[in-house]
Each structure stands twice: as structure tokens, then as C-alpha cells.
Endonuclease V
Amino acid sequence: MVIRAYGTFRLDAGFPGWDGSEHGARLLQSELASQVQLSDALRMPLRTIAGFSAADTDDGRVRAAAVLLDVQTLEPLHAEVCKFPAPLPYVRELLGFRALPAMLETLSALPREPDLAMVEGHGIAHPRRCGLATHFGLASGLPTIGVARGRLAGAFVEPGPLEGEASRLRDGDQQIGWAVRTRSESPPIFVSPGHRVSLAASLEYSLQMQCGHRLPEPVHLARRLATQPDEWARPRRRGMRDTHSSRLV
DNA sequence: GCGACAG
DNA sequence: ATCTTGTCGC
């Protein structure tokens, strides 16, 4: 696959500049965070968006899923699932190192690059501003938004009770994302820029992709595919091309 | 006992 | 990530 940023990152070579240790991972995150772009680099009009999610497999690897959707209709156009060995056990704040390789495999397997990527996990709403979605954005070069179900960094006041209400997620005097009420009866989700997307746009696109679930539709579908690949195999949506990757599964 | 917990 | 009971609403 084409790696446009992240130095000379290659899947077969691992993370450049990482010695494999947890401490080294934290150092690299701080370095990567300085490369994040918080201005919008979206090609308008937006035609496609892809959701990405990762889960553990029973054999200790990581299973990632990607779902490509039409931005206008939110209909899924294509889906991919890949498995990849985990470079690290799960460590809080270091999820990017564990899940990124599998996720990049699903991206490279898509028939075309999406105009925007939405990753389940935090973007800059991370202690060192380098969550999974930021790793993904820097590695792929794609405009990327992070969407997470739980808070990792920052503080927020509870957003209003109605769908679409949001409040700032802030760390000290800096805003690092949003707490967003996507369903009136559910706790808020946490949205932040991954790379090449502004704070404002990250919120706007998350709300635009809402489809009745707590998570925006691209991430909702990717999560379902990553955590319950068997369920997905059963028919549920028309117009869906079943194109599971077999190369690495 | 209670809060916190990215995937 | 995953396991777990019961409940409510469409």
C-alpha cells in the first residue's frame, strides 16, 4: 500500500523509529503528534467515507474491519476484514501500535480510497495527542476522524440531553475534541480530529453520518464487522457486495 | 463500597 | 476486546 506520511512506514518493516518498547512507543507518539494537521484537507464534495474498527481474535491477533460507504445515502458499498499479528499486548494509550497494522491492511484492500476515514478510537483526544485515529491518519495520509465510546483524556461538561448536542472536550486550556450526544438516551461519544481535519469538521461529519445508532454509521458497521464477523456474513442489507478478504484471514 | 476503564 | 441479566421500545 502507499504510505504518504509517517516517515518511511511500511507494514513489512513495522513502525520506523520504534524500538519495540512501551517507553519507545510513547516517545514516538509525542514525535508523531507534532506532524498532525488540524486544518481541513477534504476534497469536496465528499463522495465516499470509510469506517474502521479493530477487535481481538481468539488466537491473539487483531482483526480489523473496513466498510466503505456512499456519503449521500450512507449505503455500504464494500467491506473488508483482515487479521494481523499484534505488535504489542493491549496497553492503555498505546492502542495505535496494536491495531494500526491490521487496519492499514483493510484500507489497502479497499477497491478505492475513501475521501474521509472514520476510525473507532481517539484522534488527538489522547494524553500525547496521538490516538489510534491519528496514527491511522498519519500513516495513510487520509483525512481522518476519531470516534470513541469512552473518554481517554480531557474533561467535559455533560452535553445537553438532545441528539446532536455537544460540549467541548478539553485538556487544560486546549480543546482536544467533543463529547457528543448522538442519541437522547445514551451517554455521549467522543469525537476528535485524527489528521487533516479540523475540530469543527470532525463534529460536523460525525453528526452528518448518524443513522440512529450511538456511533456514526461508518464506525457502527465497521465495529459490527470486526467484533461479529459471523453476524455480518448473514444477509442484512441489500446492495452490499460481500467481498471479505481471504488473503490474510 | 465506588469510580474508572480508547480497542 | 469479551463475558455477563433483565428490561424497554420499535
